[in-house]
Amino acid sequence: MLQIANSENVLAEAQNLRESPFAIRGLTVSYDQKPAVFSVDVTIEAGKMTAIVGPNGAGKSTLLKAALGIIKPLSGQVTLMGRPVAQEMHRIAYVPQRASVDWDFPVRVIDVIEMGMFRKTGLLGRLSRADRAHAMSCLGRVGMTDFANRQIGQLSGGQQQRVFLARALAQNADLYLLDEPFAGVDAATEKAIITVLKSLRAEGRTVVAVHHDLTTVPEYFDNVLLLNVRKIAEGPVATAFTEENLQAAYGGRLGTARLNAAAVSG
Amino acid sequence: MVAVLALRASTRPQSAGNPMFFQALTFQLGYNATLVTFGATLLGIAAGVTGSFLFFRKRALVSDAISHATLPGIALAFIVMVSLGFDGRNLPGLLAGSALSAATGLFAVQWLASRTRLTEDAAIGAVLSVFFGFGIVLLTVIQTMSSGQQAGLEGFLLGSTAGMLYADAVLIAGGGALALLLVAIFRRPMMMASFDPEFARASGINLDRTDLIMMGLVMGVTVVGLKIVGLILIVALLIIPPVAARFWSDRADRVVLIAGALGGLSAWIGASGSAVAPNLPTGPIIVLTAFAIFAASLLFAPGRGLLISALNHRKFQRGVHIRQGLVSLAQGQAIYEPLTLRLLQAQGLARADGVATEDGVARASRVLRDEKRWETARGDPALEMAAARYDGLTQIEDVLTRDQIDHLDARIGPPRGVTP
Q: Between A69, A105, A188, which is nearest B384 by CB?
């Protein structure tokens, strides 16, 4: 009996991995001796929008960076449709935190977008007229066409974030990973970004975003991953984003009133 | 160091006649001098171009550690070649030695910065001084060797084109050209790694390998440039041209090209000067030339230069004063700021007692209208893109279409007259 159950589990697991555009197994990352992410398993659902939520220092950004190989994990496997993520990087677009960039760098907005097309052009290839048109259309999707020739330092924080998103759009990926896309942006930008993300989902692409505003989770996202070094919960917002789980993730750091306001009832 | 510099002090000064300098600049000073100047120019271009990426990556000072770390290699290569019975002054041999010790120094910096808690600047300071000190000790040892007196190794400290062989010049020119070719090939990953390393890695760029290529190029340019610029000052040829070029453009590709041109120009003038006065060290001449270019760029470059920035600021300030003054006139308020009144008067918009002229009345009502339109536009989410171009002075007619303005006007209501 146990044997059969086990083999069923193995089959189900294989199935999960094949169908998930972003599956993490046993991921542990540590800075020095202190784990930032400990033994986390995640199975992101295809064609959905998933929020990664947790308190400061919960390892949300670290999880994304380690899964992409930007920082080296201690252990763990990451797969995209069952294949090692390192082989499938061309299907992934990553939007880092805005703070990770030198904004005085001498590039124009359009140059930043075209950096998103490096995989296509490679080392020496040139951008075709169609490529350039594609870059402009990506800028258009985030409402930044008029700014194509501005130096990036001249943009506001929200506009910079939209340029980052446009660069990711130019990559034409299946999986979009965003690190705090709404951090410190104005309301117009937040609206523009969420509209673009929803259109990506409508096109059948998968969106995963580190998110810090608990109140907008149910409105913006289908699924949620609650993280505090370890995984607290994952699943549809309706079942995973509960007061109990939030309490477990945030501990005493969040007032009960805010938990109540944020969590979906039931 | 003292012993080394004492040698230099014994050289006799030479007069640098102007016609000769012109001949050197125009490649008319004999085959060898021409070749040396050509090689130096190519090296200068390569240094400016390679240095740009170093500057973008914010690792400019690593090149200082690399260059100082070449000294023990030069000295050891000399000792080894002499003890094996070869000519100790063989340039390829010396450069090979310098490359080996520079690579050791670079590795030491990388290792200290990544594997210990030392920061990169501390690692640079430690490596630079230890390698340079060791090199000076070895040079002093060489001074005591029988063949050491004529070694001329001190030329590697500050650069010297005197007595440079044809083959040496070819080596330097070839090295510069090779560096330029490699930069052309790897420019995209190097640029992306500099701008946004995390994104670059997520785009499949191997950051470690890209940095290795970048540092390898810097090392190559340093080693090849040792003979001409000298190890103490080569860092200047790598860094000053891109820093100067940055004043000229907000586009990285152009900064790289301009830096190459400025580096080439500095080296060309410097090497020409050195051809005229062979006893003057080449490095300082090149660096002073580069500095002059930097100073000129800092002051006069369009866009980011100090002069144009000051002028633009002044122009903007005056524009703001005039506009504020006109708004005050339109609303029948008194103008208190003397500068505002002076500017309005100068443009014939107001009289000395602060009363608007006929022109002033017309302009004031237009400005007030423009202010109202902006106010409405900036509150309208649909016009967000245009509103982002608001700077207090731009007329809304330059940003919105006629239809959009009509739409705004409909919301504001009919224009009000201004009482003079």
A: A188
CB distance A102–B195 less than 8 Å? yes
A70 to B246: CB separation less than 8 angstroms, yes or no: no
Cα gap B357→B359, rounded to integer Å: 5
Q: Which residues of B touch A96 (CB under 8 A)?
A: 196, 198-199, 202
Angle in degrees, CA B190, B193, B194, rounded to 5: 85
- Report how far residue A226's alpha carbon sits from residue A232's, in angstroms, rounded to the nearest whole number: 5
- Contact B349/B360 with Cβ under 8 angstroms? yes
First to last CA, chain A: 35
Based on its alpha-carbon atoms, the radius of gyration of chain A, rounded to whole angstroms, reads 19
Domain annotation for chain B: domains and CATH numbers: 17-301 (1.10.3470.10), 307-412 (no CATH)
* pLDDT tens profile A126-166: 888 888 999 999 999 998 888 999 999 888 888 899 999 99
Q: What is the pLDDT of residues B321-366, one digit of tens each?
A: 988 888 888 888 888 888 888 888 888 888 888 888 888 888 888 8
> Taking a C-beta distance cutoff of 8 angstroms, is the pair A137, A108 a contact?
no
Question: Are the CB atoms for B183 and B49 separated by under 8 Å?
Answer: yes
Which residues on chain A are in Cβ contact (under 8 Å) with B186? 123
ipTM exceeding 0.90, yes/no = no
Q: How many other C-beta atoms lie within 10 A of the C-beta of residue B285?
A: 24
Per residue in B54-97, pLDDT tens? 999 999 899 999 999 999 999 999 999 988 988 888 889 999 99
